[in-house]
Specification:
With 544 residues, the chain is α/β, with parallel strands linked by helices. The chain has 16 helices and 27 strands. It folds into two domains: 4-309, 3-Layer(aba) Sandwich (Rossmann fold), CATH 3.40.50; 437-543, 2-Layer Sandwich (GMP Synthetase, Chain A, domain 3), CATH 3.30.300.
Length: 544
């Protein structure tokens, strides 16, 4: 069943129920009333602080945008890009593209103008919806994107090179367009996060999107009464596919435009959120704010919060143990996935397996997994190999990149590039990215294992371990450490702490610096390598 049918069904079953709420905490009133109460007051001049949309209006806005696209010449299979910050318009635009039979192409809001131009061209996009944050970048390239026939500006004071989204959809029908869709039809192109090079265009079908929704709802048991707090960017599969579980049952979602710990806790309290998906840095920031006394839990209504789940990167077991001390009544789950497997859920820990914290879990609903050696043969339990997944959510291909597709898709299996091992109980532990493995003196070092150990130090906010070139050993492990605000840490103290590791796993170099992460929470190791590997090579030349 095409994913668009769920939206039409929700509009019929729950027409006046709230589907989406957008909160922009930067415009919070000074009084301490709840955000919900504030929305009922007379709005103040300026940008709205809280907006909401019913299921009926959600569906109508999607239909209007679909009809607008079709009046501008969009046909089934055409590619339409989205370049927006999270907002109340994002998802209706996304579903409008799908209802027109077109392929949605969400773009990373951090892309430079040239990266935007590259991605529009790579996906053969014919139209684009963009927001005010991107006017400058679009001005740089608007005369160098010949495939783009129309651009729709979502916001006030429309630039001269685009059409006003708000004005144009007001003239379009709110009836659903009659475009036949099937499970096998192309639905979306998602770009990879770029942590391993320039992003690849990942093509998914309607079957993939529907499977993501069923997986999420099966794993976390969403009901119509659940309220999902969505914080990560919607252009990425992680946020959207977790929301799909609520979408499937017509549950409300809250789009929070900000990641400050106080904003997250207040949103959970005021909007009565029951499910929150966090990235590792946000969970850590919340706990730190509670420890400092910046957040007093007794000031909030949090009893309804039932599930905290986390993913997008390896999760330190020490973080979860610390979380459950503060929130002992929470269910906890971690999810593993890739954009190539339509985001989270192909492997998940499961709500009943808190004793296995540290593992990414077992095969998710409708998925099959295996761990293989360099020849593609399954390894025995306890040995490290490459994790492979198979299921209805595997991508069709890397769009217009047959060679890259053939490298990762083999007999229906997606080779993830992640190194993993399976324990005696059948639970999978992520060891590291295949290309992040450090080979020092012939020994394989897996940075995640070292990072998890160092992160347990109470003065460490974040850590990344990379390999630096070494004339004798080939590579050595370097730990880049970000210290918690207000605390101090020395190289000697880190080295003393690391005596708890086997000698060959101890980092040979300690660097104190900020850890860069992308919008989905992943450490940007290529950026770190470009900084510190270059410095290491220069140092070697000086020594010579």
């Amino acid at each position: 069943m095409p994913i668009t049918e769920i939206l039409a069904s929700n509009a019929q079953r729950f027409p006046i129920d709230v589907a989406l709420v957008e909160i922009n905490p930067r415009f919070e009133p000074e009084s301490r009333i709840t955000w919900r109460d504030y929305a009922l007051m007379q709005p103040q001049p300026g940008e709205p602080f809280r907006r909401e949309l019913t299921w009926s209006d959600f569906d109508k806005k999607a239909n209007r945008f679909a009809n607008l696209l079709m009046t501008r010449g969009v046909r089934k299979g055409d590619k339409v890009a989205i370049l927006l910050m999270n907002s109340l318009e994002w998802l209706p635009i996304y579903f409008g593209i799908l209802k027109a039979g077109a392929v949605a192409v969400p773009l990373n809001y951090r892309y430079t103008a040239e990266e935007i131009r590259y991605c529009l061209d790579k996906a053969d996009c014919v139209m684009l919806a963009f927001g005010p944050e991107f006017i400058g970048r679009m001005e740089e390239i608007c005369d160098r994107i010949p495939k783009i026939k129309h651009m729709f500006y979502v916001g006030e004071e429309c630039p001269t090179f685009a059409d006003s989204y708000d004005r144009m959809i007001g003239f379009c029908s709110s009836r659903a367009p009659e475009v036949p869709l099937t499970d096998d039809d192309d639905a979306a192109i998602y770009y990879s996060s770029g942590t391993t090079g320039f992003p690849k265009a990942i093509l998914h079908s309607h079957m993939s999107l529907m499977h993501a929704a069923r997986v999420e709802q099966n794993h976390h048991k969403q009901t119509h009464e659940d309220v999902f707090l969505c914080i990560p960017p919607l252009y990425h599969t992680g946020a959207k596919m977790h929301w799909f579980g609520s979408f499937l049952v017509g549950g409300k979602a809250v789009l929070l435009k900000g990641t400050k710990p106080e904003w997250i806790i207040k949103a959970v309290s005021d909007e009565k959120c029951t499910i929150v998906w966090l990235l590792v840095p946000w969970a850590q920031d919340i706990l730190d704010a509670i420890d400092r006394g910046d957040i007093r839990l007794e000031d909030y209504h949090l009893d309804q919060w039932r599930l905290m789940h986390i993913g997008a990167q390896p999760v330190p077991p020490s973080l979860i143990r610390r979380w459950l001390k503060v929130f002992p009544h929470h269910d906890y789950d971690t999810n593993y996935g890739l954009s190539e497997s339509i985001g989270p859920g192909c492997v998940h820990l499961g709500l009943g397996h808190i004793d296995k914290v540290g593992a990414i879990g077992q095969a998710g609903y409708g998925w099959t997994v295996k761990i293989v050696d360099e020849n593609g043969q399954p390894v025995k339990r306890g040995d490290v190999g490459e994790l492979c997944v198979k299921g209805p959510g595997v991508m069709k291909c890397y769009y217009k990149d047959e060679q890259a597709t053939n490298e990762v898709l083999k007999d229906g299996w997606l080779y993830t590039g992640d190194m993993a091992m399976e324990d005696e109980d059948g639970f999978i532990f992520l060891v590291d990215r295949k290309k992040d493995v450090i080979i020092t003196g012939g020994e394989n070092l897996y940075p995640v294992q070292i990072e998890d150990f160092i992160r347990a130090h109470n003065a460490v906010k974040d850590v990344a371990v990379i390999g630096l070139p070494h004339p004798r050993l080939g590579e050595i492990a370097a730990a880049i450490i970000e210290v918690k605000p207000g605390m101090t840490l020395t190289e000697d103290e880190v080295n003393d702490f690391c005596t708890g590791l086997p000698r060959y796993k101890r980092p040979r170099k300690i660097i104190f610096a900020e850890i860069p992460r992308n919008p989905t929470g992943k450490i940007e190791k290529p950026k770190l390598r470009s900084i510190y590997c270059g410095e290491s090579l220069v140092a070697q030349q000086i020594e010579k």
